[in-house]
């Protein structure tokens, strides 16, 4: 599974403990399919809303031990049902993901950062919390760090995808940030790449990096291979930010992406994620 395909999901790679791979895969397919219902194809907004309502009904049926409809049964809800009951997954977190996908169908502007963070709380943070649940980790510090990482990944995806979101009418940059740089949402929707837009992206990227640095110490709270997988997730997000910096924040013109050449530096930085180094980096990001 590729982090490019569903950016907020730490993938069920070879680093994931084999016993948990079916559970991680089932949750992934639930989130991926819902995201596709909201975004892919030529369906109207009303048709997408209807599909997501039916999808939620199947989720609640599975949670209640009732057979879901046949539409997504084999690929999504049969494996999810097994995992849901075996691990007692929190239904609220799965519902939150669907809330976010439904919101994307009708909301294209954000009044402030708090409103955008509330969206991230439902669109991204449940993924991290579900994975922590699988590992039996539920202390407050771990949950805060997981939320910071997942929110950062979501924000990075927004700033990475500016050239894609504009043509479909979505602007995730909060209004006060736009105003501070003399911009409007329409400027971003038109993909007008100019010094003001690049200054905005520089500031928004720094916000995302600060959150990632804040959450990074979680890698030392996860056991064994899970901690190493999370290191690579963190470094993947930071690497995208490096790519954005390298192109001088011109993501209204082109979308940066990771390739095979990025793996070596990501591994190198992952190996160097000592507690002391992470603490220094977090302090530096906060000061910036």
TrEMBL record:
GO terms for biological process: terpenoid biosynthetic process. The keyword Transferase applies. One of its GO terms (molecular function) is squalene synthase [NAD(P)H] activity. Keywords: Transferase. Its EC number is 2.5.1.21. InterPro entries: HSQ_synthase_HpnC, Isoprenoid_synthase_dom_sf, Squ/phyt_synthse, Trans_IPPS_bact-type, Trans_IPPS_HH. The keyword GTP-binding does not apply. It comes from the Bacteria. SUPFAM superfamilies: Terpenoid synthases (SSF48576). NCBIfam families: HpnC. This is Squalene synthase HpnC. It comes from Paucibacter sediminis. The gene is hpnC.
């Amino acid at each position: 599974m590729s982090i490019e395909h569903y950016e907020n999901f730490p993938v069920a790679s070879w680093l994931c403990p084999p016993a948990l791979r079916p559970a991680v895969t089932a949750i992934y397919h639930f989130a991926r399919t819902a995201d596709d219902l909201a975004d892919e194809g030529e369906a109207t907004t009303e048709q997408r809303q209807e599909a997501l309502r039916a999808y939620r009904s199947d989720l609640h049926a599975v949670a209640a031990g009732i057979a879901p409809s046949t539409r997504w049964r084999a690929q999504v809800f049969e494996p999810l049902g097994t995992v849901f009951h075996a691990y007692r997954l929190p239904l609220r977190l799965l519902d939150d993901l669907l809330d976010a996908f439904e919101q994307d169908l009708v909301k294209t502007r954000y009044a402030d950062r708090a409103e955008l963070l509330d969206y991230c709380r439902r669109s991204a943070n449940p993924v991290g919390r579900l994975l922590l649940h699988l590992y039996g980790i539920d202390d407050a510090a771990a949950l805060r760090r997981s939320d910071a990482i997942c929110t950062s990944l979501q924000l990075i995806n927004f700033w990475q995808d500016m050239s894609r979101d504009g043509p479909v009418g979505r602007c995730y940059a909060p209004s006060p940030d736009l105003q501070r740089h003399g911009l409007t949402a329409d400027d971003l929707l038109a993909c007008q790449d100019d010094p003001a837009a690049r200054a905005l992206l520089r500031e928004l990227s720094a916000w995302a990096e600060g959150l990632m640095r804040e959450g990074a110490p979680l890698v030392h709270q996860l056991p064994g291979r899970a901690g190493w997988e999370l290191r690579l997730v963190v470094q993947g997000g930071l690497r995208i930010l490096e790519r954005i910096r390298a192109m001088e924040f011109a993501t209204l013109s082109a979308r940066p992406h990771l390739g095979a050449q990025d793996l070596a530096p990501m591994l190198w930085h992952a190996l160097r994620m000592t507690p002391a180094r992470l603490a220094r980096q977090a302090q530096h990001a906060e000061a910036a």
